[in-house]
Write a structure and sequence with these properties.
The structure holds 3 protein chains of 3 kinds. Chain A is α+β, with helices and mostly antiparallel strands. Chain A is about 25% helix and about 20% strand. Chain A has a domain of about 200 residues: Aldehyde Oxidoreductase, domain 4 (2-Layer Sandwich), CATH 3.30.365.10. Chain A has 13 helices and 15 strands. In chain A, α5 crosses α6. Helix content of chain B is about 30%, strand content about 10%. Chain B has 5 helices and 5 strands, in the order ββαβββαααα. Chain C is built from 10 helices and 12 strands. Chain C is globular. Classes of the chains: A alpha+beta, B alpha+beta, C alpha+beta. Chains in contact: A-B, A-C, B-C. At the A-C interface, α3 of A face loops of C.
Chain lengths: ~450, ~170, ~260
């Protein structure tokens, strides 16, 4: 415990201020080639033809990689979590988002690599794209994905994340008011200062040394090994300082593609994304569409919540089913609501696939829940702090997925907020704690959801 | 073309329209200026050109023939950190470190030019520099301390106020 | 990078003019802040690049009545005119950040074409409001004309300088976003000449900076003038702001500038 409260030097502090920190782009290897990608110029199309011969023949070009060069084309990054593979490393039959990589060129310099990528003959038959997740369920919506327009592989092959608790019908019957709201946070870019970059060096002993900006070194090691179909001991991944990730560098595929180019050319290959690629083609935090209808009594008890969530996964699944799962567990936020009817869908569109970012899945529903709590207070003419304190999670309350709360912090946080805003709470509220519900804080409708923390 | 970089004279082989960023990183192996955007939008590539802070990604090397260029490597070394480097270290003004080179150079130019510890003036001077990690507060604190000429003892790890010192550094 | 480009370094204005010729096949590189990234991103591969940094085109002359600003003058240096033309100085200091202002030139900023994704020409409205005359060379030799006319027809022209009469008062108001070097989304510049005439111009329009004659005609009533300004212009519509949003902001900026001019003694 010597470290708690002490000033400690950052292990990389001196490096950072002297310019000595080695990011991937700072690694210098003799004989290095630069890579540029051919990316889909359109949102959705069938690939009718792909001819790289002109690019391959260009002076200064050492390798061109397409789907044909990938031993295992589709590998699900989260297959260990039950999400099957759906995304080719390089496009083969079709392209489903603008910017999707189709080929990678490795050449003596960036200019040559870019010129060669331009020289690749690409024959596309465009299709009508889908961007609005609400329209994905229409009978005449374009078909985006081989699985249909929404993810169908939750447990027992369910096509949604579903939570049912108590009786939503009873809750709606007993309510004085139904408070509704729709919440639609937009996509957010990570914008790390360091763009995505990978450098792969083929060693004389047949191994590959991979310098990667990945946030998840061992994870990426497994991804590369799977796509290349090589044992782990053939790969050496050198991680190091990531120039900002925020979740955007956990689903990297750049090192895999660079590895294939390095193997094919026999030379070290570096692929450094431009800032424009980073903005246009990198994965983002997902857009969401959330509809909430709460059954509320006039004194501010939330009897039940009916909720529909559509999550925009973009063109492929990546981590979206996992994000939606977390979202569903937390869809009541910091509050205890006993009767629940939740349906959440991972919807495919022709956008750049969405991915992890700082608490993904949960931040969206926190925003929706908190805004909705204020909406409830506003519509019922109640104090927004009091509504929160009344419904706050307490010891013994259960979450949407029946986890028993043993250490909930809602009451303390809301009281601290009130204090910070110089709001004086009524004495009944000011004296509230997180202790197990009893008396006035345990109305009939909350009895059934209580559980014993000892059972946790 | 000729450039003096951190006091060392170099003959530049790259084409005149090559960016100073490219020349520094690829030809001269000086990697502290970073390619954050290569369009002048982020400040990660900033270096001093004849004492003025400039985006090296926007500077055609042919336009600065004969100039003196200073990068972070020319400010100080791990064994002998310059005051701005010490201030940034003491104030934990770097997290991932990618924006740090540009911030340091801009801060150095700002204080050399008479900049004060006023947060608004510091923000104005460093306005072209983006950081996605720190939220800027510690960077501004570091520059303010540097502007005030504060000195730092970087060897100790003092306990934070209100806590007992439990034994110092590991 | 771009080893095939012929790069020219004129060391005098005459040499620059001569090498520019009629501008055919020539890419002018002044500060480079706009052109260099286009080359880096492979969108521009100049056959001949005319580097103006050593050509002596920079400088501000002020004889008390008229001011001449060389096209090669760094944008930052317009701060020198803070007393004589505060509206122009304010506009200049609102461009990007200090590092870019120190490198970008007045000429480069004025002549920048409307970017595909980025509005440009932050200084256009300010100089148009000043009634500036643009002196340029190209096919047919030297030409002096109102800046707005030059901007309408600047293909194949090399801007040498802009000249304007010192105003009695000047003002500037802009839509500002938190990120400092947002492009000028929308800005209004205003000038009261020594003769008492009010001139207004806007930047952030569909093409380039322009006068607001209808607003000028109603200048004594800022509210009316703000509304009238919408009749004068087509507004830009891009990722930074929709035309709708700009149309709500323009009257506000016009009112602010007119109020500033009224308050300036």
């Amino acid at each position: 415990m010597k470290a708690v409260g002490a000033r400690l030097p950052r292990y990389d502090g001196i490096e950072h201020v002297t310019g000595r920190t080695q990011f991937v782009d700072d690694v210098r290897v003799p004989g290095m080639l630069w890579a540029k990608a051919l990316r889909s110029p359109v949102h959705s199309a069938e690939i009718k033809g792909l001819d790289v011969s002109k690019a391959e023949a260009m002076p200064g070009v050492h390798a061109v990689i397409t789907w044909k060069d990938v031993p295992l084309l589709e590998y699900g990054h989260l297959s260990a979590l039950g999400i099957p593979a759906d995304e080719p490393l390089l496009a083969r039959d079709d392209v489903r988002y603008k910017g999707q990589p189709i080929a990678l060129v490795a050449a003596e310099d960036e200019e040559t690599a870019a010129a060669a990528a331009d020289a690749i003959k690409l024959d596309l038959e465009e299709r009508t794209p889908l961007f609005d997740i609400r329209k994905a369920f229409d009978a005449d919506a374009p078909k985006i994905h081989q699985w249909g327009n929404w993810y169908p592989h939750f447990e027992n092959e369910m096509d949604r994340r579903q939570i049912r608790k108590g009786s939503i019908e009873e809750a709606f019957d007993k309510a004085d008011v139904i408070v509704q709201g729709v919440y639609r946070p937009a996509a957010i870019e990570h914008v790390p200062l360091e763009t995505q970059v990978a450098l792969v060096v083929p060693e004389a002993n047949g191994r590959l040394t991979i310098y990667s900006c990945t946030q998840a070194l061992y994870f990426s090691l497994g991804v590369v090994a799977a796509h290349l179909q090589v044992p782990l001991n053939k790969l050496k991944v050198v991680g190091g300082t990531v120039g900002g990730g925020f979740g955007g560098k956990v689903d990297t595929a750049s090192e895999t593609m660079s590895a294939l180019a390095a193997r094919k050319s026999g030379r070290p290959v570096k692929w450094r994304w431009t800032r424009e690629e980073e903005f246009l083609c990198s994965s983002t935090r997902a857009p969401w569409h959330m509809e909430i209808a709460d059954a509320v009594t006039k004194d501010g008890w939330i009897l039940g919540r009916k909720m529909l969530t559509l999550h925009d996964s973009g063109a492929y699944a990546r981590f979206s089913p996992y994000g939606l799962t977390k979202h569903s567990f937390h869809h009541t936020g910091a509050y205890t609501i006993p009767n629940l009817h939740f349906d959440g869908f991972v919807v495919f569109t022709n956008r750049v696939p969405t991915t992890a970012m700082r608490g993904f899945g949960v931040t969206s529903v926190s925003f929706a829940t908190e805004t909705h709590m204020s909406r409830i207070a506003h519509e019922l003419g109640l104090d927004p702090y009091e509504v929160r304190l009344r419904n706050a999670n307490r010891i013994g309350d259960t979450s949407p997925n029946r986890i028993v709360y043993t250490d909930p912090s809602t009451v303390a946080v809301v009281k601290a907020l009130a204090g910070g805003m110089d709001v004086e709470l009524g004495s009944e509220y000011a004296s509230m704690t997180r202790d197990k519900r009893e008396g006035d804080l345990l109305p009939e409708h909350l009895v059934g959801q209580l559980a014993d923390p000892e059972d946790h | 073309m000729n450039l003096t970089v951190n006091g060392v004279a170099h003959e530049v082989d790259s084409a005149p329209l090559s960016t100073l960023l490219h020349v520094l990183r690829e030809e001269l192996g000086i990697t502290s200026p970073k390619a954050g955007c290569e369009q002048g939008g982020c400040g990660a590539c900033t270096v001093l050109v004849d004492g003025e802070p400039r985006r090296s990604c926007l500077t055609a090397v042919g336009a600065i023939d004969g100039a003196e260029v200073t990068t972070v490597e020319g400010l100080g070394t791990p064994e002998a950190l310059s005051p701005v480097q010490q201030a940034f270290t003491h104030h934990y003004a770097a997290q991932c470190g990618f924006c740090t080179s540009g911030m340091l150079v801009a801060a150095e130019a700002y204080v050399r030019g008479g900049g004060t510890d006023e947060p608004e003036a510091i923000q104005e001077a460093l306005a072209g520099h983006v950081c996605r990690c720190t939220g800027y507060v510690k960077i501004i604190d570091a520059v303010a301390a540097f502007a005030r000429g504060e000195e730092f003892d970087l060897s100790t790890t003092a306990a934070s106020p209100g806590m007992t010192n439990l034994g110092g550094a590991q | 990078m771009t080893h095939t480009t012929e790069v020219l370094f004129p060391s005098s204005v005459d040499e620059a003019v001569s090498l520019f010729g009629d501008g055919a096949g020539v890419t002018v590189v002044a500060g480079g802040t706009i052109v260099v990234p286009e080359i880096t991103y492979g969108r521009l591969a100049p056959a001949r690049a005319l580097m103006l940094s050593g050509a002596g085109l920079d400088g501000i002359e002020d004889d008390g009545a008229a001011i001449v600003v060389g096209a090669g003058t760094p944008v930052a240096r317009l701060a020198q005119l803070a007393d004589a033309v505060p509206g122009l100085a304010a506009c200049a200091l609102n461009v990007a950040d200090g590092e870019i202002r120190g490198q970008a030139t007045v000429g480069g900023n004025l002549c920048a074409g409307h970017g595909a994704d980025a509005p440009r020409g932050d200084l256009q409205g300010a100089f148009v409001a000043l009634g500036a005359t643009a002196r340029s060379v190209g096919a047919g030799g030297e030409r002096s004309e109102p800046l707005e006319a030059f901007l309408d027809d600047r293909e194949g022209r090399l801007l040498l300088d802009v000249r304007f009469e010192r105003p009695a008062a000047s003002a500037f108001a802009s839509l500002d976003y938190p990120h400092t070097h947002e492009y000028t989304v929308l800005a209004v510049s205003g000038v009261r000449t020594q003769g008492g005439e009010i001139r207004l111009a806007a930047t952030g329009l569909a093409d380039h900076g322009r006068r607001l004659p209808s607003a000028e005609a109603a200048a004594s009533d800022p509210e009316r003038a703000g509304a009238a300004a919408l009749d004068d212009v087509s507004l830009a519509d891009d990722a930074l702001a929709s035309e709708w949003y700009r149309s709500r902001a323009l009257p506000v900026l016009v009112r602010r500038v007119l109020t500033q001019l009224q308050e300036a003694s």
